[in-house]
Recover the amino acids of this structure.
């Protein structure tokens, strides 16, 4: 039995439920046919939409705090999208220049027009619009000034192409951050004291505190950096992200802002998301963080404010990754209730956790390796992911960094990175990893 033309038109424009057809109802008695036909069609359409990014992009971006999408296993669409963002973060490592002889030393190897193509991601569906530079306002013992407190390439801002936007169901503004590489960044990571963020001068909120080293990286500027231009990491990001959101929103498009980072980059992504939301930009576009192996960033008041502002954060963690337990190994969300006098000094994770499970004896660095994270998300063999076998690009972050700082090591008293590794060794033993 077929439906009249008027009813067929109504079927094409109807929603996800059973919508009655007035034309057929007026003809008398045909409503049951409309219900019987449209209900399963609508359900099939809704089910099909749940299998595409465009059909469920708001859920993927965390509008429902990923409820029902993580257990018993991550939704395949979500899993694929998170892995995709991880690969876009991996591009930062592949493009970062660690050759001391290069004129782009500690900056990006390539121009932004061809960066993604050069690192093998020409089909990623994004156009890089700006490079981002950050400088930590810290001094590094035994290191020459050229590597201490200077602005270095930390990531990039990109926007989805027209074709990718159709697949995603919206225009996506992406901010991608790499993790710790330079000695100054390692020193910033060790600055575990909490400091009032005070990012909004009209409402400073002194109770909202974040790790001082991360805040320094985000807000300090190095005007001598020949690649970065004027301004701190924060100023560069606010200008570019607000420009892109305003431009595409004015054209009537749905726009999202996605911030993704690994390790220290996760901390910068969360700080940026909080900043954007505090300034009201998330009223024009949802702001989402995808964090890979990220540390804690701020105290309970920081978490509460992020929740209040609607910042969505999905923390992808390896349960054996010690970096995700820092800072606040003792003063954290788990101990705040017991250590009440110090509860305002307790670090607290923000967002929803997506836990992974990987550990390889004899290769401790792999537990924090971005490529390991991506491999697990892609569903590779958990006992020996591809990342553990091939560490030549985004992988082997800790090994690569320690090799780099080892080559830069000076003589004299106990170098900063030795102290850092001793501290990390103590932490690893505390966690029972070795």
């Amino acid at each position: 039995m077929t439906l009249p033309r008027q009813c067929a038109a109504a079927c094409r424009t109807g929603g996800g439920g059973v919508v009655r057809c007035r034309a057929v109802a007026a003809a008398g008695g045909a409503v049951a046919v409309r219900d019987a036909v449209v209900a399963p069609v609508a359900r099939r359409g809704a089910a099909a939409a749940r299998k595409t990014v465009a059909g469920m992009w708001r859920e993927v971006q965390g509008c429902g705090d990923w409820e029902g999408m993580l257990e018993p296993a991550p939704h395949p669409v979500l899993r694929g999208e998170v892995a995709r963002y991880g690969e876009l973060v991996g591009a930062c490592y592949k493009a970062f220049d660690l050759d001391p002889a290069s004129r782009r030393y500690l900056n990006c190897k390539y121009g932004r027009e061809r960066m993604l193509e050069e690192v093998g991601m020409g089909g990623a569906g994004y156009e890089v619009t700006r490079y981002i530079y950050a400088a930590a306002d810290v001094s590094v013992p035994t290191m020459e000034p050229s590597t201490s407190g200077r602005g270095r390439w930390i990531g990039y801002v990109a926007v989805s192409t027209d074709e990718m936007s159709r697949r995603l169901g919206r225009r996506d503004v992406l901010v991608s951050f790499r993790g710790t590489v330079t000695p100054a960044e390692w020193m910033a990571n060790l600055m575990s004291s909490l400091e009032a963020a005070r990012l909004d001068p009209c409402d400073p909120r002194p109770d909202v505190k974040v790790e001082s080293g991360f805040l320094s990286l985000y807000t300090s500027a190095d005007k001598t950096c020949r690649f970065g231009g004027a301004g701190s990491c924060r100023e560069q990001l606010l200008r570019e992200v607000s420009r892109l959101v305003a431009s595409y929103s004015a054209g009537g498009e749905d726009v999202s802002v996605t911030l993704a980072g690994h390790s220290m980059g996760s901390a910068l992504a969360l700080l940026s998301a909080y900043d954007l939301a505090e300034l009201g930009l998330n009223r024009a576009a949802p702001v989402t963080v995808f964090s890979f192996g990220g540390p804690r960033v701020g105290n309970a008041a920081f978490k509460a404010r992020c929740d209040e502002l609607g910042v969505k954060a999905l923390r992808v963690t390896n349960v054996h990754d010690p970096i995700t337990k820092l800072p606040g190994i003792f003063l954290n969300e788990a101990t705040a209730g017991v250590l009440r006098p110090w509860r305002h000094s307790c670090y607290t994770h923000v967002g929803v956790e997506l836990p992974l499970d990987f550990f390889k004896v004899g290769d401790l660095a792999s537990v924090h390796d971005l490529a390991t994270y991506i491999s697990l998300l892609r569903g590779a063999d958990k006992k020996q992911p591809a990342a553990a076998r091939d560490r030549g690009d985004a992988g082997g972050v800790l090994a690569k960094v320690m090799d780099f700082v080892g080559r830069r090591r000076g003589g004299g008293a106990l170098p900063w990175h030795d102290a850092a590794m001793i501290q990390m060794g103590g932490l690893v033993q505390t966690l029972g990893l070795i």
In short: The longest strand covers residues 126-134. Residues 1-38, 380-434 have pLDDT under 50 and may be disordered. DSSP finds 16 helices and eleven strands in the chain. The domain at 69-380 is CATH 3.40.50.1820 (Rossmann fold).
